[in-house]
C-alpha cells in the first residue's frame, strides 16, 4: 500500500537430467508444529481477486489432485457471477468481502490475485486467520511492507508461496544445475528483456460496459490509496497507476529477477539504478512504458560480483527479440521459449598475437624477438582453445509450470512445511530491488540495498559504493 521462466542434453536423457535436479535445495525449510493436512484430504481453496490472473491461478491450482474451490471474493459483481460459470459451480460462495472467506472454517488456503496494493493487507489477514497463502507477485507494493508480511508468515507457521511460477519449470531447474556444476564459470553479466507492442500488452484491458459504483466496490478497492471519485479505468487498468500497481518493474522485472535469484542462488543486488520514459502510451498513466535498470550484485563467498541489466519497452515497434542470458567467464546460458542453450567457450591460456594486434607495428627485429620470447613462454598445449560446445535442453512438451508451482505449494501445505520454492523471504528479495527501480526512476537516484539484511541503505552507508572522486585540485600532478 502506498505509505508505503529434450529433446536431449547431448549426454543426458531428460529423465536423468530431471532426476539430477530433484535434490535442489529449497531456499528455506522450516518444519513447524503446523496442523498438517492428512495427505489424503482435499485442500479447500478460495480465491481473493478473481480477475485475469485469479482465473489462471485457480485453474492451475485445480489441475492438481484433491483441490476443491469453495469460495471467491472480488470487488466487481460481474466477476463474482462469471466465477460460478467458469468453475461450473452455481453454489460457489461469492462475496465482495474477503474477510468473510477468511472467517470460514472450510477454507485451508487462499490465492491472493488482487492488484498489488492489496497484497500485503490480504496476505497478513489471511495468515493471521490461519490460512496458507499463495500470493501473486510482486509480493508487496512498497519496500516498507515486506517485513510485516515476513513476520506474519513466520508467526503464523503457515505455508506461503509467491507467484512467479516460471521458476517451477524444468528449464530453470536445469539452469540452476548447470550453474552449480560450474558449466559457465563465474557469472559476470546477466541480461533480460521483455518487450511488447500492443494495447493489451501495455495493460489497456477491456472495461465492462456495466462498470459503475453500483457494480464495483470502489471504496474498498482504494483502501489506503488516495481517495478519488469512481474511475473505471483506474479499477480495470490499475497497473497504469502507481497508487495500485508497481509499473513494468513490479509487473515484469520481478519475473526476471526471481528467475535469476533461483538459478544463481543470489540474495540480491546492492546497487540499483533505473532510467526510462513514457514514450507511447500517453493515456493518463503515471508509470513509464520504457524502462531499463542496472543492478550490481556484490561478490559473496559463493559468487563473484556480476551486473544485471533488465529492460522493458512497451513501445518496441521493431522486431521483438527478447532474450535472457546468463554470461559467465566460460560460457553462457540462454533461455529459449522451449528450454535453454548452454554454450561453453573457454579461452586458451596463451594470449596469442597477430591479427588486429600491435605486433606488426614494431620494428622487424623487435617482432622476431617478441615471437621468440612468446614461443618460450607459451608451449603449444597452452595455445589450444577448447572447441565451443553447444548443449540444448528442451522442456518436456506437456510441461505445466503453473500447475507445478501450485503443486509445490500444496505439497508443503499437506506436510505442514514452510519450505516452498518461493517463500516470502525469497519473494521479498525479488520484489524489493524491482520496487527500488521505481524509486530510482522517480527520484532520479541510485538505491543502495543490503540483500542480506533486506534493508535499504543511505548512500553514505553503502558498502561497495565507488570512492568519491578526488577533487580537481588533488588531481593535478
Ligand atoms: N504470475 C503471473 O504470471 C501473473 C500474471 C498476471 C498478473 N499477475 C498478478 O496477479 C495480480 C492480479 O492481476 P490481474 O491481471 O488478474 O488483475 P485484474 O484486475 O484482472 O484482477 C484483479 C481483481 O482483484 C479484485 N480485487 C481488488 N481488490 C480486491 C479486494 N480487496 N478483495 C477482493 N478482490 C479484490 C478486482 O476486483 C479484480 O477483479 C497482480 O498482482 C498481478 O501482478 C501475475
TrEMBL record:
Residue ranges occupied by any Gfo/Idh/MocA-like oxidoreductase bacterial type C-terminal domain in the UniProt entry: 173-265
Xref: Pfam families: GFO_IDH_MocA, GFO_IDH_MocA_C2
SUPFAM superfamilies assigned to the protein according to its UniProt record, in alphabetical order: Glyceraldehyde-3-phosphate dehydrogenase-like, C-terminal domain (SSF55347), NAD(P)-binding Rossmann-fold domains (SSF51735)
GO molecular function per UniProt: nucleotide binding
Segments for region (Disordered): 457-477
Gene3D superfamilies assigned to the protein according to its UniProt record, in alphabetical order: Dihydrodipicolinate Reductase, domain 2, NAD(P)-binding Rossmann-like Domain
Domain Gfo/Idh/MocA-like oxidoreductase N-terminal, residue spans: 43-163
Annotated protein name in UniProt: Gfo/Idh/MocA family oxidoreductase
Organism: Rhodocytophaga rosea
Native organism taxonomy: Bacteria, Pseudomonadati, Bacteroidota, Cytophagia, Cytophagales
